[in-house]
Write a structure and sequence with these properties.
heterodimer, A: 229 residues, mainly alpha, 2 domains, B: 102 residues
Chain lengths: 229, 102
């Protein structure tokens, strides 16, 4: 009996995320180590990975908790850092028919990485998005658990050089999409914008503003600019 | 439930709400400028994520990270493979670190 197209897409999405596991595992463990060092118990450390499932916001929350911040600061920071996911949802909805239970599930699994591999390899296939998102969810939570259990003996990803995995992965996703002068211009503005704004703003806010600025300029460019150089 | 449990639930709520909100917006019906804007978002997001994560701890580390990025670009441009490009760039950087260059 052959597999259905949906299960094939699910498996393809799950496997498309596997190369990124190299970076996810140390960061999931590092998040847990940081959370435990901030005095958060293993249950709440894991609960955040299960329910929030947003690495940047989780790291920020741990730092804020360690600094004695209150609930409203944590909640508003989480909102600001994850506002970029609004754009991801709009792009996914414009290219892929995601409805009902799949949409409810996709909304929990729509991270930077799941959006990236879906846009690059799975447009139009909702099961691909679910597979990619679930692949990341399982590994992120497993590495959080390992990090909680081995909190005192694990090195930080930066200490062993694995923090470079994410920018390299997003670069590998970016290269095939830069096909003309318009996309090259958009990439340049977004990169310079994120770099420049990153010194003054929260990472999520810098990324959101740089993305909106670059996409806004790119959409306004005359058609002739999009022709291949 | 503890105050931290409630806070985590609220953090989960705002994150889920933002993601679901985007999926519910009628992006498919956009035309013209709005459609071109959405089409440009993936390139802009990936470039911003690269720029935010690539800078190194100092000038030498930064130079090797840029070299690793260049290796990734060349391998992906030739093979179109995410894994091949990622592993080649990572290997370049880790070898430089192991040799004490980065």
């Amino acid at each position: 009996m052959s597999a259905s197209p949906a299960s094939g897409d699910f498996g393809a999405g799950f496997r498309a995320m596997v190369p990124l596991w190299i970076g996810v595992v140390p960061f999931g463990a590092a998040y847990a180590v940081t959370a435990r060092a901030a005095g958060i118990d293993p249950v709440h450390t894991q609960l955040m990975s299960l329910l929030v499932f947003a690495g940047g916001a989780q790291f920020a929350a741990v730092g804020l908790i360690a600094a004695g911040a209150g609930p409203w600061t944590l909640i508003s920071t989480t909102f600001l850092l994850n506002l970029r996911h609004l754009l991801y949802g709009v792009v996914v909805a414009a290219t892929t028919r995601v409805r009902g239970a799949r949409r409810a599930l996709a909304a929990h699994l729509l991270t930077d990485e799941a959006f990236g591999v879906h846009v690059a390899h799975g447009r139009g296939r909702p099961a691909f998005l679910i597979g990619a998102g679930l692949s990341l969810f399982v590994v992120w939570n497993a590495s959080t658990l390992v990090g909680s259990l081995l909190a005192r003996s694990l090195p930080a990803p930066q200490a062993i050089g694995l923090d470079i995995v994410f920018p390299l992965a997003f670069l590998a996703l970016l290269v095939p999409l830069v096909r003309d002068r318009r996309s090259l211009t958009v990439a340049g503005i977004a990169g310079l914008g994120a770099w420049g704004l990153g010194a003054a703003l929260e990472p999520g806010a810098a990324l959101l503003l740089a993305t909106a600025l670059a996409a806004g300029v790119g959409a306004a460019l005359p058609a002739g600019v999009s022709e291949a150089p | 439930m503890t105050p931290l449990t409630w806070t985590i639930l609220a953090m989960a709520g705002v994150t889920y709400g933002v993601r679901l909100w985007g999926l519910l917006l009628p992006g498919a019906r956009l035309r013209g400028y709005g459609r071109r804007f959405l089409d440009a978002v993936p390139v802009a997001v990936f470039a911003a994520l690269v720029a935010g994560g690539l800078p190194g701890a100092d000038a030498i580390d930064g130079a090797w990270r840029i070299a690793a990025a260049a290796v990734t670009v060349v391998v992906v441009a030739r093979t179109r493979g995410l894994a091949a490009g990622l592993l080649a760039g990572l290997a370049c950087y880790l070898v430089a670190r192991a040799l004490g260059w980065a």
